[in-house]
Design brief:
Elements (H helix, E strand, L loop, with lengths): L6 H13 L10 H12 L12 E6 L4 H13 L5 E2 L11 E4 L10 H18 L3 E6 L1 H10 L5 E8 L2 E6 L7 E4 L8 H7 L3
Parallel strand pairs: 1-3, 1-4, 2-3, 4-7
Antiparallel strand pairs: 5-6, 6-7
Helix pairs in contact: 1-2, 4-5
């Protein structure tokens, strides 16, 4: 069994798996998939996608990198609505950031994930041509359960480690997934600005 904490660790791990594929069972998140795809198939091609008119981001990961990405986003786009009381999220908001309230008493990971998933699913079921992002495996699993989806039909990679797909193949639900600890500090800023 091997574990990875950085993109470089994943690249090294994927190289080992690629050298002896029958010896390994690769299990992991988008970052591992990216590294394996690079080893097995070469460089990625640009993703061609439909234009999106909004973006809801649910950041459930507690990683330091996710906190840095949120802080950079809030500095760059101070007018972006931030919902920490998930019950206040309204489907009319074209762009918003959903995240746990850091001032509230701590809650369990499953409770936070379920609350974020409920809010994200509310938007997904109501709006069209909006892009959705979920970070953190607990949140992604909770969202899939909430949508009653068993798989994600992968369309491609938005950026390294950030996969665009469609839960249960439903093209009305464009979803980006990302492990909380991956991507540089400006990733969420670039994502939001890419919609302009």
């Amino acid at each position: 069994m091997a574990d990875a904490e950085t993109d470089a660790d994943l690249d090294d791990l994927a190289g080992g798996v690629g050298d002896e594929p029958g010896k390994w069972l690769a299990v992991g998140a988008a970052g591992l998939s990216r590294a394996l795809a690079q080893v097995m198939f070469g460089a990625a091609v640009p993703l061609d996608h439909a234009p999106f008119v909004g973006l809801w981001m649910a950041v459930g990961s507690r990683s330091e990198r996710a906190r840095q990405q949120v802080a950079a986003l809030r500095r760059a786009v101070p007018e972006l609505p931030v919902m920490t009381d998930i019950d206040e999220a309204t489907v009319e908001s074209p762009c918003l950031l959903l995240m746990p309230d850091t001032e509230a008493p701590p809650r369990g990971a499953n409770e936070v994930a379920a609350a974020l998933a409920d809010a994200l699913a509310l938007g997904m079921l109501a709006a069209r041509q909006r892009l959705y992002l979920v970070t953190g495996g607990d949140c992604a699993s909770a969202l899939m359960k909430r949508l009653d989806a068993c798989y994600i039909d992968v369309a491609g990679e938005w950026e390294p480690g950030m996969v665009l797909g469609y839960p249960q193949g439903n093209r009305k639900w464009p979803l980006l997934t990302k492990a909380g600890g991956f991507g540089d500090e400006a990733l969420l800023v670039r994502l939001l600005r890419s919609l302009d």
